[in-house]
Specification:
- The protein is an alpha/beta fold.
- The chain has a single domain, classed as Vaccinia Virus protein VP39 (Rossmann fold), CATH 3.40.50.
- The strands form 2 sheets. It has a 7-stranded mixed beta sheet with strand order 5-4-1-6-7-9-8, with helices on both faces. Strands 2-3 form a two-stranded antiparallel sheet.
- Strand 2 and strand 3 form a beta hairpin.
- The longest helix has 11 residues.
- 34% of the residues are buried.
């Protein structure tokens, strides 16, 4: 069973990385995600952006419209696209922030996963994607899907990870900017 973190960490080694959605709210305390710190150790450089960023380590900003004076080898958007008001605007903006032949990594829940059938939804999600709708959206906005994973572990809890794998609860897409 593949591990989401391992795949991402291998991809960011020695790269200039833009991490979108770098914070998580843990019991009312806003903290950078563990993955952000792990990527910081592996990447050449990393910039974190979050709508609730602290302004120090992680820039406070909206990924759909933020303008940075830098281009990146790779953009990581882990559990972000399903929260956005305008995914097309986001993809256009990330395309502008990527270097030639740069990569966009998207991780999101799989709307067609068996585990989500009885689920009534998440009030913070504006949209749900399955592998087909996500691929269509990505390709529409100037990317080509290079690799697709379904049901990866996330190192949270061994039982949850096993269920996530068997129920195909999440998607990870490795996309490359088209030139």
């Amino acid at each position: 069973m593949k591990d989401c973190y391992d795949i991402i960490l291998k991809l960011v080694e020695g790269k200039d990385v833009l991490d979108i959605g770098s914070c998580s709210n843990q019991g009312g305390l806003l903290k950078p995600k563990k993955l952000f710190y792990k990527m910081k150790m592996a990447a050449k450089s990393i910039v974190g952006i979050d709508i609730e960023g602290d302004g120090k380590e992680i820039i406070k900003g909206n990924a759909e419209i933020i303008k940075l004076n830098k281009k990146f080898d790779m953009v990581i958007a882990g559990d972000v696209i399903e929260h956005l008001d305008n995914a097309g605007l986001f993809l256009d903006n990330m395309n502008r922030h990527l270097k030639k032949n740069g990569f966009l990594i998207i991780v999101t829940p799989n709307a067609k996963a068996i585990g989500y059938l009885p689920f009534k939804g998440n009030r913070y999600h504006t949209c749900w994607y399955c592998r087909y709708t996500l691929r269509h959206l990505i390709e529409k906005y100037g990317f080509v899907v290079r690799k697709e994973y379904i049901g990866l572990r996330r190192r949270e809890n061994p039982i949850k990870d096993m269920l996530r794998h068997f129920l195909a609860n999440n998607l990870l897409f490795i996309c490359q900017k088209c030139e």
